[in-house]
């Protein structure tokens, strides 16, 4: 089966536009003309392996995402986040995309190198609380978690460590948008991933 360069081109274009990168930047990175790069995005020009790796680094993606049709990624969640928050700056978009890559790297290291087993955690979104008062549901879920984690009612000294010990990937990054305290992605491989705005210290 022949490789579909048109699909690759669309993925490259979507990745570039999601980070608000002008096409002149990847053209300069590859040391090719502006039109030659546009031809790659349009599927008319073939791309070499080293060029693809350079673009994957620039676009903060795993190169396998671009060449594998069924490569598991959080791309759809990230793109939806960017669509819903169109005013996000380029810096914040890059920080979010880097956060996703960090989660993927950390998950790989924990599974393949350190052979750590993930811990199943309750899904309170599917829990039957017996009422529809969302604030109370949050309070009750927090109470259930304190009981499950055996932390009692005392202040938690290191919430960051506690979350990590539940096989949840959590990172801090300083975002320009002060309206964002944190964001969550349910990665198809890495699982639960949380990015905390560095301005909101843990």
DSSP strand (E) fraction? 5-15%
Overall structural class, as computed from helix and strand content, comes to mainly alpha
What is the tally of beta strands?
Answer: 3
Measured distance between first and last alpha carbons: 50 Å
Radius of gyration: 20 Å
What gross morphology would you assign? elongated
Taking the sheet with the most strands, its summary is: 3 strands, mixed
Q: List the uncertain runs.
A: none
Helix percent reads 40-55%
Q: Main sheet: which strands, in order across?
A: 1-3-2
Give the topology string: H per helix, E per strand: HHHHHHHHHEEE
Care to describe what's here?
A hairpin with a 3-residue loop joins strand 2 and strand 3 (191-197). The mean pLDDT is 92. The chain is built from 9 helices and 3 strands; from the N terminus they run αααααααααβββ. The protein has 202 residues and is mainly α. It has helices at residues 5-18, 24-30, 34-41, 49-58, 63-67, 75-84, 90-113, 134-149, 159-164; strands at 169-173, 182-187, 191-197.
């Amino acid at each position: 089966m022949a490789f579909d360069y048109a699909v690759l081109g669309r993925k490259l274009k979507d990745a570039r536009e999601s980070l608000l990168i002008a096409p002149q930047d990847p053209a300069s990175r590859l040391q090719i003309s502006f039109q030659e790069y546009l031809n790659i995005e349009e599927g008319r020009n073939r791309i070499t392996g080293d060029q693809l790796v350079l673009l994957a680094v620039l676009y903060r993606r795993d190169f396998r995402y671009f060449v594998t049709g069924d490569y598991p990624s959080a791309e759809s969640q990230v793109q939806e986040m960017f669509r819903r928050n169109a005013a996000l700056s380029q810096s914040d978009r890059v920080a979010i995309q880097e956060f996703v890559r960090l989660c993927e790297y950390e998950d790989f290291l924990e599974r393949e190198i350190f052979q750590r087993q993930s811990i199943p955690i309750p899904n309170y979104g599917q829990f039957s609380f017996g009422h529809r008062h969302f604030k109370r549901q949050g309070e009750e879920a927090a109470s259930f978690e304190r009981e499950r984690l055996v932390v009692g009612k005392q202040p938690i000294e290191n919430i960051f460590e506690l979350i990590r010990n539940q096989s949840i990937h959590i990172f801090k990054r300083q975002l320009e948008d002060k309206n964002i305290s944190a964001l969550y992605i349910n990665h198809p491989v890495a699982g639960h991933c949380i990015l905390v705005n560095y301005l909101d210290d843990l």
